[in-house]
Amino acid sequence: MRTWKSIFLCCTFLFGLALATPTLHNVRLVGGAGVHEGTVQALTDDGWRVLCDDSFDFAVADVVCRQLGYTGAARYMGNNVYGTPTLPWYDVVKCSGQESSLRECHQHSQGNEACVAKEVAGVVCRAGIWANCGVGQFQCGSYNLHTCIDRNQICDGIEHCFDKSDEDPRMCGDFGVVQVGSAMNNGSGVIGPLRIKHQGRWSTMCDDDFNQAEAQVVCRSLGYETAILYNEAFLGEGTGFVRNIVTSCTGKERWLSECPDINWDREITCTHKEDVGLLCSNKMDVRLVGGSGRHEGRLEVFLAGEWGTVCNRDFDHYDAKVVCRMLGFNGDANVIKDSSRFGVGGGPIWLDTLDCNGTESQLEACITPPFLLPKCGHDLDAAVSCSHTRKSTVDRDLAARLMPSSSVCGRTADTSAVFVTSLAKVVRGRPQKRLNFPWLAALYFKSGEKFTYKCGAAIISEWYLLSAAHCFRRHGFFNYVVKVGDFHIDKQDPGEQTFSIEKVRVSPTFDIPFKSNNDIIILKVAPVGGQGIRFGPLVQPVCLPPEDTDYISLKNCTVTGWGHTEPKASSSVKTELSNVPNVARLQIFQKEQCIGPNQRDAIAVRSNTVCAGDLLGGESICNGDSGSPMTCLGKDGRWHIHGIASTVVGCGLYGYPPLFAKVTKFLRWIQEELETL
Fold first, then answer.
1. Is the pLDDT of residue 644 over 50?
2. How many CB atoms lie within 10 A of CB 623?
3. 673 and which of 10, 409, 505, 667 could share a cystine (Cβ 3.0–4.6 Å)?
């Protein structure tokens, strides 16, 4: 690689000597709010070119503006602020500031190593609202509220302007010029380690807080629509300095420095083993190949000028719905597990982890970083079947199977439990009434004659319950019993029923690709006297949710469990479980509200989870509440189970609402598994 680069640089240098620098003729400004501002474009013998922003200053900006008929420049910009899609011209122009046109300035050819595609200069000339200060002065603020300072005071490290515009990094230094690896397929994409330039210093990027939103911004700044992020030096380790920035990018910004709250100077704790890599590509396209028509087949995506496939390891019907929507199908969308019927795919396996909510219009919105799983082969290519029509929904099919009399589920005998303002908290709370949530069940670890409470569960039918898979991580299901109609965990209650567990079905992707992911399990109780769970005022099943539930719109949601009612002050402090169940009111949050530098990692909050609770650290689940149901009161007056308590950080810790396994994500899996239980 070193030899290749040396040859390239040598050839570039010789090529530069062989060609004379193009002669400058006219200039123009493009992409601004008027003819007085924009990217600086210069007409040369070879056509219009842009100017590199290296060494670009007020001296050059004044000359540009005078050549255009203005008295001088109000300000100048770097980093292609105006975003004009033109061919870069990698020449550095040096002026004294007294010249009447750029033709009189010194042009120093630097070759291709001098600038990258986004190091393009821009200018705002003194005109209109930008002509309030004299020549040689800098205008702070706006037309209606402004002050004037001497130009010598800009970029001196001291903020002289009330709006801090005199230290604007777009004038005073680099603010996020980026490079990504090497070009692919005639410029249709770039791939490789990310390098970023800030204050004249190039560095690689640490993956600690660099997420998909930041990746999207970087690729957009390079002129590409699709970004695929690779962590842990997946595309190779860089050399030199490693930067670790913190931002609050939305993914819609034009370049990194537009992201809110950007911090370029965070303490570096990373090594090159954590270097970020990126694939930036033109717009993604999809197709289905090998089927009887365009409605079915092996899924292929078009990235960086080449068709490739998608790994099916974490591919589900939410992802399939987005694929079908892109192809114009708005009916049923199904994942076909046996993709071999459509032939063996070829080319790159572009995507290994997709995470769609099912509502996205484009697959690009579902891309998440790979989790460095074992390499996926074409024997695991994803396949999809689409339809223009919609058959009966999964939740209705399941309801008919689980509840022959559909009027049974989700009802409470105590009508006062619908929703009251004095609901107790699971953490620091008061107990609920016994009749409030009759679908709540308890899992006990059995050791001889002793029973120890471990987790909660939810009754969904005479034979089946749902709980958290991680409750069974240490011990097999045969070590547990299920108690329904339970209230006091420290004594036998009237009407309490106890069952052994006959069979279980754990989500096949539980703990994959990270711990406690897909945290759900189906339990089937063993019959007692030829019967399963017997229903009555104290024991009732909860309803399964509608498949197309919009979680953000859910109201009147609670979680109920026997977990700890006080968070631990430290690991040495022992707290007790509640002897009766408590209930907490839950607010549902968008994914973006639950992730951040001082919150959860974006990897943990996925489409198979719902983040719910209190962002301020109030009501929450705690140790012992795992597997407990998150239920919401529907418009039909019944309670539906929308989540299974999975993970919590700190039991009501500020900024860390608990995560619940999203039941709608697993409805199809539940339907399939009930056929074999």
1. yes
2. 14
3. 505
Specify the higher pLDDT residue, 197 or 478: 478
Query: Is the confidence at residue 18, as pLDDT, over 50?
Result: no
> φ, ψ for residue 666 (rounded to 5)?
-110, 5
**Domain boundaries defined on the chain:** 17-131, 175-281, 287-353+364-386
The rounded distance, in Å, linking the Cα atoms of 430 and 412 is 19
The CATH number of the domain covering residues in 287-353+364-386? 3.10.250.10
Q: What is the pTM of this model?
A: 0.72
Residue 366's SS3 state is: helix
Same fold, 175-281 and 287-353+364-386: yes
Does the domain at residues 17-131 carry the CATH identifier 3.10.250.10?
Answer: yes
- How many CB atoms are located within 10 Å of the residue 116 CB? 20
Q: Say if CB 626 and CB 480 are below 8 A apart.
A: no
For the chain, helix, strand, coil in percent to 5 are 15, 30, 50
Residue 378 phi/psi, 5-degree rounding, is -70, -10
Neighbours of 311 (CB within 10 A): 22
Contact indicator for 43, 25 with CB cutoff of 8 Å? yes
Tens-place pLDDT, residues 370-401:
766 677 899 999 999 999 988 767 777 788 77
| pLDDT, tens digit, 9 for 90 and up, residues 76-93 | 888 778 876 556 565 667
Place domain 175-281 in its CATH homologous superfamily. SRCR-like domain (3.10.250.10)
- Report the distance separating Cα 301 and Cα 322, nearest Å: 13
Question: What's the N-to-C CA distance of the chain in angstroms?
Answer: 57
